[in-house]
Amino acid sequence: MSENYMAGRTVLVTRPKPDGTKLCEAIRSVGGSVIYFPTLDIIPTQQFISGEYDWLIFISPQAVRASRDYIKLNHTPRYAAIGPGTAQVLGLSNVIFPEKNPSASALLKMPALQAVQGQRIGIVQGAGGLRELSDTLTARGAQVTQIIAYHRCCSHPPNVNEVKKLLAEKKMDAMIITSSDSLNHFFQLIGSDIDIQYLTLITVSERLVKLASEKGFRSILLAENAGIHAMMMTLKGLGDTP
Fold first, then answer.
1. Buried b (16+ CB within 10 A) or exposed e, 68-96
2. Which of 109, 133, 152 is a domain's end point?
3. Count of domains for the chain
4. Whether residues 138 and 177 fall in one domain
5. What is the pLDDT of residues 105-157, one digit of tens each?
6. 147 and 46, same structural domain?
7. Distance CA 31, CA 33 (A)
8. C-alpha–C-alpha distance, residues 17 and 38, integer Å
9. Do 75 and 126 belong to one domain?
10. The domain that contains 207 carries what CATH number?
11. Same domain, 94 and 126
């Protein structure tokens, strides 16, 4: 396959910094054109993580970045991450995570999190995150604390009108979305009257596939995870399509 396998393709990238800008660079490096349109801003809460935990679970790379300077523990807990991208940002050797299908349900299937009766578990996440992880671990007898490391808010990128115009003229080939908040904010920014059925959407979970289908997307590709390598592997398939 040519190193410029994305030549002639234009991709709309919605991820916030720094992951979004790194993904843009990767797409450009293989000949693709990129419209960077971050739909979320990540605002750290600067909340200190103290006390005693048997486990700290991080549910996103943003959770790691927003909290790493505020962890003040007297002992070392075990660590878990929602997927390989989050584990990579965490940068520790003793992290458990699902290799494929990064999600709460996949993490909950891992053997180490089955018998957690009486264990103290801190879940480091953004405000308004899904409760599946917390509810299930609580039902298994764990003492769960939800640690809010950041808030998400709708960003206001300066190129809204440009994006609307390109979408209306069908001059984009694909769009990358990695969270439900990002998808919902995308429609808040561009409105609901823009035809997006022709776009190929690349996303990272079955839950997002379902939500995107409800929003009107018809061509949806599921990346193995939210990491840049997995995204680029998925885009290779797009690049091979005439």
1. eebeeeeeebbbbbbbbbbbbbbeeeebb
2. 152
3. 2
4. no
5. 899 999 999 999 999 999 999 988 778 999 999 999 999 999 999 998 889 99
6. yes
7. 7
8. 8
9. yes
10. 3.40.50.10090
11. yes
Summarised one tens digit per residue, pLDDT across range 161-198 is 999 999 999 999 999 999 888 999 999 999 988 889 99
* Residue 2 placed within a domain: no
Question: Which pair of structure tokens corresponds to residue 118?
Answer: 């009486």
* Long-range Cβ pairs for the range 185-188 (8 Å, 24+): 185/39, 185/40, 185/154, 185/155, 186/14, 186/37, 186/39, 187/215, 188/154
Extract the tokens encoding 155.
Answer: 């960003």
- Contacts with 187 (C-beta within 8 Å, 6 or more apart), sequence order: 215
Closest CA to 222 of 197, 210, 205: 205
Tokens 């609307």 label which residue?
164
